[in-house]
Structure prediction request, 153 residues.
Amino acid sequence: MRKAVGLRGDSRGELLIEVLIALALLGLISVVFIGAMYTSLQAARISDERSVGLTLAKSQIEFVKARDYADDDWAYVVGTNGATIVTKPSWWDANTPAALDAEFAGYTVQVSGVSSIDLDESGVPDEGIRVITATSLHNGVEIVALQNYEIYR
Prediction:
């Protein structure tokens, strides 16, 4: 009867083995695909984090450049809870920086202004030039640091 239906006696279990091989290949392809998706999601997260950090650092540098020139070195930290003075600039009482919006929870920006270490031809530090540094952090990890110059005019 087997020969009439077309089944051979030595083919028992071949279909099961073929299905198991197909499932193994499908699983392997799925693992590779999921790994690629995870990598791309991590890259997008890091890119977004750096973009936000860069925007926050730029906004703080522009805030400082819009204030009067401060003669002494100064530093402050700004986050979603407001700004904290490390070393008070002369313009602080009249123009404190606004707190970061709630959407930037976990981000802080450390801002400092220090006298330039550039020397003129005679070896004397340049007067009226200050280096402004804004460092963005996310959950305490540094993301980006920007430097710019402020000139007393």
